[in-house]
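Hello,

Our lab assistant flagged a job as stuck in the queue for most of the afternoon. It eventually completed. Since we weren't sure the result was trustworthy after the delay, we are filing this so someone can double-check. Below is the sequence as submitted and the structure that was eventually returned. Let us know if re-running is recommended.
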Amino acid sequence: MKLARALKHLVVPDWVARRCFSAADLLQIEKAVKNSEKRHQGEIRFVVEGSLPLSYLLLKHRSSRRRAEDLFSSLRAWDTERNTGVLIYVQLVSRHIDIVADRGIAAKVAQDEWDAVCRAMESSFRRKEFLKGSLEALERVTSLLARHFPSAGGGANELPDRPVVL
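-- returned structure --
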């Protein structure tokens, strides 16, 4: 990791970064996740983190992407019945977004489609449109999942819909 980026993560307090999302914003995101999951068989986790943990700043190959993959595991997004978990990771200090999809989804949705969603969200964030960018990204994720994994009706909600703020 570049020194300037590491210093930024060490200097910017988490509360400064996290103020991009109010409690009301997080409730709207939770509602969007809940409504999304009615349209497909996927399970979505939305994670917002201020700065990367110190271990990710000190160790080689500990990128935002790696952090997203580790959170995908620790939040058990991989542990859904149909392997249809999706994690949207918002790294606020560096304004980097990653989407990690379980193997059932990755077999049908190419990574470049997820990357396009991430880049659009990052573009909104550059304009300080955090809620709008998040809701638009959730709608795009919903469309991708509904196309490949349409709702079978009556499926259990396997993962919490509430965004995780770290």
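-- support follow-up --
The delay was a queue issue, not a problem with the job. The result is valid. The mean pLDDT is 88. Residues 3-151+158-165 form a domain with the Diaminopimelate Epimerase; Chain A, domain 1 fold (CATH 3.10.310.50).
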